[in-house]
Task: structure prediction
Amino acid sequence: MEAITPDGELIAALEEERKKSPELAQAIDLHHEVISTRAKIEAEAAHVKPDEREVATQVDERVPLMQRWELGWDQESFSRLSGQICDVGARHREDLAPQFNEIRSLLIEEPDQTQSIVTSHLREGKVDLPEHPDVDQQLLSFVLVNALHPFLQAHAAVLRPMIRDEKWYQKRCPVCGGEPDFGYLEEKVGGLRLLCSHCDTVWTYKRGECTFCGNSDKDSFFYYLGDDEAYRLYVCDKCKRYLKVLDGRQTASKPLLPLQRIITIGMDVSARQQGYR
Result:
């Protein structure tokens, strides 16, 4: 499997993109500061030593590796980083400052809940908070993904090289089990590559069906083309999910997928306005 994009490379790419796309300045500036902040965390190397046979068994059983070799993370560093990310979000998006401040309080002032929140986020992709019904789940996910990123990267760096991509072909990430939030059609054969929303692992999946529910009915699973025909917005009317996809056959060079996730925020807005999530 291909290596994850280092934060330093992503930061440099964001700076270049800001020059070319000033209309995206707000989104780019927010992500630039968040990524710069999380890049300062030096997570310890993962203390796991799976052998090839163990990994092969997990992959054959279609079980993400982190369900067997769980993520190790330092709660003090995580809490500090999550607070910093909430502060960055509140500064850049004053309209969302109350929501970011609520999440900050939840993750820092109630440390007993932090472990269960992180565990639920990693295993289920969502967090049930009946005692905090007003917490914005989308913003909470944004904070958790970025605050866990240094630890996920350190852990995934050990596990990812042991996975044979052609053995997986599942909807969820083979490393952490996260859902994809971006796709890429390879430039030569048009094969679909998915980008994990949690740990940035990239893996191959079959085309022609929803990457969330498996729906392949062409009347309820289809895509809209972007203005330049390089971008596609795949939508599913069965599960009401969407996936942003870049067609590599329409681009001059191989893209930086974590960058593409950020600069296509307009597609997210469009999809949500149409009732997809």
